[in-house]
Write a structure and sequence with these properties.
This protein is mainly alpha-helical and 190 residues long. The protein has helices at residues 2-18, 21-48, 54-66, 72-128, 130-147, 178-189. The longest helix has 57 residues, at 72-128. This is Receptor expression-enhancing protein. GO terms for molecular function: microtubule binding; olfactory receptor binding.
């Protein structure tokens, strides 16, 4: 990590900062070769990891790329990468434009399908669960009304739904909290 990325990243920063074109080009060639190396490494690791000294050879290769004496990245770039990219540049650009257009079209297509699926699921859930949802909401609102008796509103005519025993006491009278019953008792004696 330090050898292959952090060291070159720092010197690339220095090249950009100093605006030295020669250094800038040198580090750009390194990063192009390093990108190709890491891409190839993804596949070669699967098949060649059993090879003796495979990882040591990879470290030696990165050292060779970085070395100012061997100028490995410059050599590979000028001998192989630049001529290949120059001869195939038009086809690569066309493929990239087509891929960009297709990816945008696919994004729009799958985005529309995703929204349609979500809308259909929401409508189905609302239609199937409408009765249960309205009953659930009604039970919550009735339960809330039976616990709020202090505002002078009459109690609802229908009994609270089953299972809401905490809203009423033993004789159908609403339960009051301890502080509310104490204040009611003290206000009656005053």
């Amino acid at each position: 990590l330090i050898f292959g990325t952090l060291y070159p990243a720092y010197y690339s920063y220095k090249a950009v900062k100093s605006k030295d074109i020669k250094e800038y080009v040198k580090w750009m060639m390194y990063w192009i070769i390093f990108a190709l190396f890491t891409t190839a490494e993804t596949f070669t690791d699967i098949f060649l990891c059993w090879f003796p000294f495979y990882y040591e050879l990879k470290i030696a290769f990165v050292a060779w790329l970085l070395s100012p004496y061997t100028k490995g990245s410059s050599l590979l770039y000028r001998k192989f990468v630049h001529p290949t990219l120059s001869s195939k540049e038009k086809e690569i650009d066309d493929c990239l434009v087509q891929a960009k257009d297709r990816s945008y079209d696919a994004l729009v297509h799958f985005g529309k399908r995703g929204l349609n699926v979500a809308a259909t699921a929401a409508v189905m859930a609302a239609s199937k669960g409408q009765g249960a949802l309205s009953e659930r909401l009604r039970s919550f609102s009735m339960q809330d009304l039976t616990t709020i008796r202090g505002d002078g509103a009459p109690a609802p005519s229908s009994p609270p739904p089953p299972g809401s025993g905490r809203a009423s006491g033993k004789h159908g009278q609403p339960k009051m909290s301890r502080s509310a019953s104490e204040s009611a008792g003290s206000s009656g004696t005053a």
